[in-house]
């Protein structure tokens, strides 16, 4: 995986971290901060290429986007598809949820993220156990 961090967006990402939608804050507090999600660390508002990812796990190559009302505006869906395609070409996977899913059905959001991690771990070579060395 190449280094896709965009330091030119650092200040913008930092200002986004100071805010956040109700859904983003809920997802962060209830599932993602402090390695709550199956032991994996996540970062908030991470600048990757020309995008600001809502949440990012370097270990999982996973970006989680929480889309509010603005993502239903004309032209926004096309830009989201382009973003996801670009990120996939760089080796990142994107999981997207809308605000309502996070606010009203956080358990299903949790299951979706856990299922991604379970599938991801199936393809990660595990280090040998001490008895195998």
From TrEMBL:
| SUPFAM superfamilies tied to this protein | Restriction endonuclease-like
Q: Which Gene3D superfamilies match?
A: VSR Endonuclease
Please state every residue range assigned to the domain named DUF559. Answer: 8-116
Which Pfam family, giving just one, matches this sequence? DUF559
Q: What are the UniProt keywords, alphabetically?
A: Endonuclease, Hydrolase, Nuclease
State the Gene Ontology terms under molecular function: endonuclease activity
Q: Which CDD domains match?
A: Endonuclease_DUF559
Q: What is this protein called?
A: Endonuclease domain-containing protein
What species is this protein from? Pedobacter helvus
